[in-house]
Amino acid sequence: MNELHWLIDMVQTIEVGLVVLDKNFDIQLWNGFMENHSGVSPNSIKGSNLFEQFDYLPADWLKQKMESVFLLKNRAFISWEQRPYVFKFKNYRPITGRADFMYQNVTLLPLSSLTGQITHISMIVYDVTDVAINKLQLKSVNERLEHLSQTDGLTQLHNRRYWQICMQKEFDRHARYGDETSLVMFDIDHFKKVNDTYGHMAGDKVIQHISHLLSQSLRETDCAGRYGGEEFAVVLVKTSAEDALKFAERLRNKIETTELVYEGKPIKVTVSMGISDLQDRVGNSGQWLSFADQALYKAKEAGRNKCLIYKSKA
Ligand SMILES: Nc1nc2c(ncn2[C@@H]2O[C@H](COP(=O)(O)OP(=O)(O)OP(=O)(O)O)[C@@H](O)[C@H]2O)c(=O)[nH]1
């Protein structure tokens, strides 16, 4: 007799929500945890329908789950990752105070009668707010770290390492599907003079200014990176060398005609660009890059502020 009394005491005070429902989803048991967090007492809720009492519950979805527990006599689980909560309870935990509501894992358990029939089910509600918040924070920190490891700090373009990964991916895609893809490399003309005349800080601003103009010119699928100090590289997917030349000319012209004002002084720069598309002669991604680089070198030789497509010597 004592044991039953103890058990009832424990059910009432345990830091886990316990609810018993009959086949009509009418509430038969509502423990202290459920009372504390919902503000509804067991006496006032007993016998009432769960879905009428809490009309925000996803009734169709939850009923389907519960009916399968009745039918298959198996447990079912609802994880916070699938649905952050079933019962909308406020979160009062001091450590994870940033969560507005309590994250929950819920187990649905078939309860058999003395004759072995499943006439009721139990909902066991676990408060997993601490675990959920830690996991979400870790995920967000990892995403931030991943972004930082791929991004150039000065320009917010892809850094060289990550850009090379993107470039290789597009090279492989071309090898498999044969899509036209072009690579544009460009470099600021006489940049050393900008640094020498206006200072290194002004040089940095010029690099940022050009990155901004570049970013404005890109499509979602294009992959742009800061390849080196004042050198940039862009992969244009589904783009022929002729179309890449049009893109390059537009950008070159924009850079030439948009001056940057630094500490009251106007600074004008130009860029030279080299373009290489992917044709059979390109054996690997390194060669692709080298062809664009050779075209860039030719554009510099030809007087700078120019865009040239790579032409093979053969
Ligand atoms: N401010 C600034 N300068 C940089 C950065 N990275 C490289 N540079 C400078 O860029 C200059 C590049 O000079 P060069 O390679 O001689 O080329 P250039 O003067 O642009 O001449 P051409 O490319 O031949 O037109 C050097 O003075 C580098 O110090 C950077 O992040 N910020």
From TrEMBL:
Reaction equation(s) it catalyzes: 2 GTP = 3',3'-c-di-GMP + 2 diphosphate
The protein's required cofactors: Mg(2+)
Domain GGDEF: from-to ranges: 179-312
GO biological process, one term: negative regulation of bacterial-type flagellum-dependent cell motility
GO molecular function list: diguanylate cyclase activity
The organism's place on the tree of life at top rank: Bacteria
EC number annotated for this UniProt entry: 2.7.7.65
GO cellular component: plasma membrane
Record NCBIfam families: GGDEF
Protein name: diguanylate cyclase
